[in-house]
Design goal:
2 copies of one chain form a homodimer. Helix content of chain A is about 50%, strand content about 5%. In chain A, a hairpin with a 2-residue loop joins β2 and β3. The longest helix of chain A is centred in the middle third of the chain and has 27 residues. Chain A is globular and about 55 Å long. Chains A and B meet through α2 of A and α2 of B. The structure holds a DNA duplex.
Chain lengths: ~170, ~170
DNA sequence: CGCAAGGTTGAAGCGCATCAATGTAAGTGG
DNA sequence: CCACTTACATTGATGCGCTTCAACCTTGCG
């Protein structure tokens, strides 16, 4: 959150994600977490986990791998916010979510449909845009037959063209 | 680098910095490194370092602390690119550099002057702006007596006002 | 000298923000 | 059941911040 009331969303957490690897090593929380859907979560004791990390090499490797992915995605987001257009940012956000859901088997493979509980203002806050502009872009995406959103579900109608818009091959 | 030739700078490395913590745990390099100044560097053998990390708890803690800071700065950059104006981005970039240099004792404390080898196109690529606009903003900063740049050195003339522009208290 | 890289400046244009009106659907209390 | 509210989405008009383009200037360098 910024002092002027605007906010920037850093990431969307999906089932199985940890909020962030950083808090294991730094006491100060540096961001807020908010639930969009119903959520099941568990707390981890920092001290215990750190000891476990040091004793259990496999755990250690897996945490660091997760953190590496986190870092990679953050860097990608920096590039997106710094150098991409509104269309690209929104399309990439959607495709990234779809990809991560796909890894979890959460895509109807027949229809390329995913749960999509995000409101447009979430998309806006994640892409550095305004809700109004997000609405216009999404409407345009729909009009050109790229995607469809209705009833908290999103379908990628034309994956090839949509990936082209997102500059993702 | 993007396909259209534009690029996004993720961070500036100062003396003593590691390029990134991520490569220790992931083989694929995910970004490029370029030197602006003359540089002294050393290579670290991934495998060796990983073993050392697991045997030497202090090293382990220190790497993770470094990585935590990296993560924090990346997240801050995301906020800056997503939600801040050109003036704010540029001022924050400069103040962040000054702060990091200060930790290294690399600020002339009398004059608040730092080495500043960056070209305007570096600032542009780090802030998601164009060199032309960077020039205009810097000229305006100078004109209002906030900073001064000449001869590869930058002086923060009015720290209080400048921090206000950067929205940093 | 001639050239390349960087910086400055102004004019014009575009992408997104802002503002405002309208619509819609779900929830709430009378 | 209906008035009312609240949250969200859509749409159009207008404006602004930054980009783009282009000309010109400076500096360093082979």
């Amino acid at each position: 959150m910024l002092s002027d009331g605007s906010r920037q969303i850093l990431s969307f957490l999906l089932p199985g994600d940890i909020v962030s690897a950083a808090p294991f090593f730094d006491v100060r929380p540096h961001c807020l977490v908010e639930a969009i859907t119903d959520v099941r979560y568990r707390n981890i004791k920092r001290a215990e986990f750190r000891t476990a990390l040091f004793t259990n090499r496999d755990l250690f490797e897996r945490l660091l791998k997760t953190w590496t992915k986190e870092t990679l995605r953050a860097d990608q987001l920096i590039v997106d916010l710094g150098r991409r257009t509104a269309d690209e940012r929104i399309a990439r956000l959607i495709l990234n979510l779809a990809e991560r859901l796909s890894e979890r088997g959460m895509v109807q493979s027949a229809t390329m449909e995913i749960d999509f509980p995000l409101r447009q203002h979430h998309i806006a806050d994640a892409t550095g845009l305004t809700p109004v502009h997000v609405s216009k872009v999404l409407t345009e995406f729909r009009r050109s037959g790229l995607i469809n959103i209705s009833d908290r579900a999103l379908t990628i109608v034309d994956p090839v063209a949509f990936r082209r818009v997102a500059q993702m091959r």
